[in-house]
Amino acid sequence: MGGTRSWWGWGHVEDAVGGAELDTLLRRVRAALPDAELTGHRPPPVASLGLPPSRAVVPDALAPLCSTEPGDRAAHARGKAFRDVVRNLHGDLASVPDLVARPRHERDVVAVLEWCTGRDYAVIPYGGGSSVVGGVEPRFDGHPAVVTLDLERLDRVVEVDTISRAARVQAGVLGPHLEDQLRPHGLTLRHFPQSFAFSTLGGWLATRAGGHYATVLTHIDELTESLRVVTPSGISASRRLPGSGAGPSPDRLFLGSEGTLGVITEAWMRVRPRPRWKAAASVHFETWPAAVAATRDVAQSGLDPANCRLLDAGEAFLNADVAVGGGVLVLGFESADHPVDAPLRRAVELARAHGGTVPAGRGRSAGRDGGDAIPDEAGAGAERAWRAAFLRMPYQRDALARHGMIVETFETACTWDRFDALHHAITEAATGALRAVAGAGVVTCRFTHVYPDGPAPYYGVYAPGRWGSTVAQWDEIKAAVSEAIVAHGGTITHHHAVGRDHRPWYDRQRPDPFAAALTAAKSALDPAGILNPGVLLPAR
Amino acid sequence: MGGTRSWWGWGHVEDAVGGAELDTLLRRVRAALPDAELTGHRPPPVASLGLPPSRAVVPDALAPLCSTEPGDRAAHARGKAFRDVVRNLHGDLASVPDLVARPRHERDVVAVLEWCTGRDYAVIPYGGGSSVVGGVEPRFDGHPAVVTLDLERLDRVVEVDTISRAARVQAGVLGPHLEDQLRPHGLTLRHFPQSFAFSTLGGWLATRAGGHYATVLTHIDELTESLRVVTPSGISASRRLPGSGAGPSPDRLFLGSEGTLGVITEAWMRVRPRPRWKAAASVHFETWPAAVAATRDVAQSGLDPANCRLLDAGEAFLNADVAVGGGVLVLGFESADHPVDAPLRRAVELARAHGGTVPAGRGRSAGRDGGDAIPDEAGAGAERAWRAAFLRMPYQRDALARHGMIVETFETACTWDRFDALHHAITEAATGALRAVAGAGVVTCRFTHVYPDGPAPYYGVYAPGRWGSTVAQWDEIKAAVSEAIVAHGGTITHHHAVGRDHRPWYDRQRPDPFAAALTAAKSALDPAGILNPGVLLPAR
Questions:
Q1: Where in this chain does the record put each FAD-binding PCMH-type domain (chains A, B) (predicted)?
Q2: Which residues from chain B sit within 8 angstroms of residue A520, using beta carbons?
């Protein structure tokens, strides 16, 4: 997994899309969107960015943790959303952290918070930097300096309890390195967000990340046994408990707090044996309503598949190489304890009752499996193709961004009774905005997670942009779809967090008394107001 | 389900233990504890209690909601713990609410909070009054008056969304009346705490009640889609969402807040079709360690049984009429969608691998079932006997309390790696305290819920007391076991809540920064500090 991290875009420089892959990608875009200009642009060299000098005054004791190297500051200036990448490509780094601090242990985190509280420096906790909502960007400059606190050195699995199937893990560990450390114990966290390779446990916890499981244990919240959080007012360490009813859950206050209440330094996580049995199938539908109805039946069946991903026709065609009228439902079951053919059969039966068909040869498979670090459901053709594309998507997004394309995603969740109206409103808003800002474009939909009471739909947008204007174009599209989401009963985010970008809509969906309670809690924990200003709550 | 509610003890007066049932009960006690005195005592008449006059000044507009009737005030003076019942039996009502207000709709709740905020009256939100932790008791009298806010008139299912399988329910509805209203829709909440008949949805939500499911969806939290809460600072209404990652969960702040942050007036709850397939089995073990190991294997198998209750030998003998050396594991699966014989077979196989045996004739059954309002797993003999005893237990507890017995329960949860030491410490502390205060006694254990990372053990204590001293005797036992729980990594409560009685130990297990955050949140929502003073946080 080694490589050179890109300062401006996703992942490793060495893995960027090029050569034949780029040719194919551009050819496909030209076929779908003949008006796209598709001129290639290069990222500017870091030396040309002209970053302002660091304003931070560093105490000697903390100097060994701190970097003011321009490439480091530039790489930590923002997350990895489309609008982040494009602004980087244009050399637009108006706002960068004054320095990057890399604590070696929890005491360093305490020391950095003390230092910054004393000097009123803003502190931005930073995991893998994969935020797509402005969660790590020093956008509101009301402080004399901004320190990005990068936890990458806190990357160890400290303790494994094989009896209770839990592991004590430092927050700065990246996904693959976490799995590498669990593998010798035969265990896995089995939390695989799309950002897996370049996001950290602490980031997943702070943003309530969505992971591998399509049903029941969908968010990282459910895999969390206890948390350790350094706040400016002291360390909060919750008790390792499988369940408790003692007052409101302390962990649930910090899960989703996005670095505004404290810095998560470690957690006891619920882990599990690697799956030995898997069974998967893809079911094709002629119409989207039939596909949705079938997915709802499966979601409400109590079968609780590990995978239950519905791709609409556009998503199936673009990313799974399947031509189908209505959609493809990818089902997967897995277990470390018992065969899972029977629940798969029943789920397929439910889907067939809505007119679903399982294509011969590539539809279904089952068997034993050693389990993989990277998710790879056994067998099902569409699922395999889709998984491979899934992990390449951010790299391809960057390649298309360099060619003036608008390529971005957004997601929500709602109850089933509202889905048709919400989906219609989102699609209308997105296509309307695309026509207005880009003349044309494609909107695709998939369900990443489903619940008995509703789905979590995830949308992709592809449109030809005007180089130099694609951020403004995207912002217009995003505002339109966000209005539709909030007006039709969805959440502004099912698993991408709030950050700074979702604030206007988050503020409208959040109950006012809860906002008051959260503001008060923040004042108690972070009285100087230095932690991630502007995220979740207004910057001062 | 009709009857006259007892002012001093559990449930309906008409259902009190008497006649042959009482004779049998006392005979069994005499056999186990020959030194028990077992003289019967009667509850005092309400008229003899000499309650102080009500201090509350009621505005005319609210007068129709308010009762100062002595029986009403006495019945609302405390919950239904052993120590509550015994104090009632002794006519010890030192502290009673000044009046009971019964809002007819949410506006009334708002009006009562405004009135009480203006006059600095304490307000105790009250559902079914089944607290066993001093959660509804006006113990700390720092206010000019105490108003108990009984939500019994808010008892309707307002709306049912059969598409999303959710129902909008008023908080004051008792369990059976809730199920009665869902039944015509073919739906059920399937949340059956032992207090089911005399506890309310709002009480379950405010205390994070544990319910029917032994695994996964154990707490009411997981069945909650959204909440509506009247706080003195405004109404908090969360959005109906199947899942969301938008900041810390607003609902999770109110779930478990025990009436200290606001009054829950209604909730959208996740409901489900009544189960059609059930399968159950009882597995007997010669030793307790084998029974525990088998239960852990089942809990970690991913089979997720609806029932997975381990009874130790004492519990099996006393409450399920089964003589066994180590314990009985009662397993149950259920589904509205598919047969559940296969997962039961696998769970039994796992249990057999630890030496478990399924007794011929009464061990196992499976079949279709219409579903019942009162939980009633199909078939398994021990389970059936245990269920029947389960619902009678509070009545029998009262009968024994009237005969000078100490009869009470307590519960916790811990990770599997700590269970043996915790169980040993609890058993030692309990038997030691029993010897010290009562000379003898019996301690039994069962698991009410199990998780992949640990069990929730539940203990029963039976000992001969000295009439007039049984509260003090129990308090000594309770303090000893609570110390053992907190010292050995358990939670002071898995599903009985904190109230006023668990405060000393809750304060020790709760992270200090979280306490500061919760205190600040309360100040923001309830600036006058009138809501349930002394619960979760110190009374002023």
A1: 93-274
A2: 517, 520-521, 523-524
